[in-house]
Sequence to fold (574 residues):
Amino acid sequence: MSELAMRPTHAAVMIGRCVRLSRRNIDAILTSLLLPVILMLLFVYLFGGAIQTGSAYVTYVVPGVLLLCAGFGAASTAVSVTTDLTNGMIERLRTMDVGATPILGGHVVASMVRNIVSTVLVLGVAVAIGFRPAVEPLRWLAAAGVLLLFLLAMSWLSAAFGLLARTPEAANGYTFMVMFLPYPSSAFVPVETMPGWLRGFAQHQPITPVIESLRGLLLNTPVGSAPARAAAWCLGLLAVAVLLSAVLFRRRIA
Amino acid sequence: MLEPPAVELVDLRKSFADLVVLDGLSMRMPSGGVHALLGPNGAGKTTTVRILATLTRPDSGSVRVAGHDVVRDRRRVRRTISLAGQHAALDDEQTGAENLIMLARLAGLSGRAARDRAAALLERFDLTDTAGRRVVTYSGGMRRRLDLAASLVGTPSVIFLDEPTTGLDPRSRQGLWELIGELAGAGVTVLLTTQYLEEADRLADRIAVLHGGRLAAEGTAAELKRRFGAQRLELTWRDAASFAEAARRLNERVTHREPARRELSVATDGSAPQVRSLLDEVDPDRRGVVRFNVREATLDDVFLALTDRPGPGVREVANV
Fold:
């Protein structure tokens, strides 16, 4: 069969593989599904009472927890990519002429699937404990778009981290950054409460416009330029991540 | 049309940073049969296999697999070969059948054909009973069998096996040897690297000995033994005293010694006149030697003879 004709098959098979492996990876399921829910409960019931946001804390915190989910989901993507590199699977696939795009794309799509499932779960629990978003279908669609774009960027970035790391443990370490980034942002506390030097960072890092967009779109409040800035950040990060993975892939595998 | 050689290397060179791994390696392996790449650690076996399997780019030299250049025609090479590396590259959390079906689909088979191919391979490698179990539960031998089965999904004509039996118990190793022999019998060219001389001796039709990134010798096991491992006369002595005395007297000429069995060996060409005169020389009173044996060289002797000195190409480029 010709090269071009094989590509869709390769992509489909690789996606199927990664989704199946995700489903069977109990550790990753617990981290990417249960941990965000637990963290949300923690924030709402433990810290929420002490944090003044001008609305019910659960309403304030949900967008942040959704992004935290993405961080956890991303972590296992990096670990899976590094595992494939270290156990020889990528070499086997390369000698079978499977391209870099289906190999990494399989992991990215599986990461998206995991994240979408955990997002739905978190939203469900959030509604159960008092989260009341505005019913505004077009804005929901826009929120979903922003979130998906963010997930895509984070997933590719993690795949690139996975190619950078020498061991699965190291890959896990790299993703710490992605998991930590939501904290110094407007995800959990209003940035106005932070000291000046941190506020500057929090206002201008990629997570904040994403959070502001989600919050505004879900609660039907004005969003200003936040969605545009969020999209610009995500597309920029995505471009960097895709480029970086292409370079790293070629360097790790001839 | 004459079939191109399975593998043809001309003046292959490869360095990693300052370390020269392959230093002008040239060799040719005809199509068909089992070929072994033998050499001490660091001789360049794995690098050679990786270059042949299109995973590492050579610095210079020409490398062809079944007539296709591994750099320019890497696509075509990939459709011709398969590689089973040092670790069984399989998904632990997929079942044996799922692994094979996945790889068969990637090799271009339709869903149905892939399932049939997986079933046939599982049957052939005696894994049908465990096909539905996740690979994480497999024993070392079962993993290697599945790995070998996995490298056959695409019906390759040349298979590279990098240390296929490392870490296996003797029974599993035996089983894998039989499977590799069957593969070659079915017309596939097998190139394996190994540290086990017995494995090369048992399995390989032709053996290439690598040393210091170059070809030290090449031929059938019998040819190599004839050329590089002289025969030896093994002498058993009556008692510990005569053994010690002979060991002292022959000193430098002793090639092997086994004090526990009071055995000493000296070099011989195996001819009757030479053996007779040797016996007279080492035991003039005819009281010390109680038994003698003319031993054929083993592949171990060949290996030691060829790799006992610094290799022709072993050098690190000075970093000044």
In short: The radius of gyration of chain B is 24 Å.
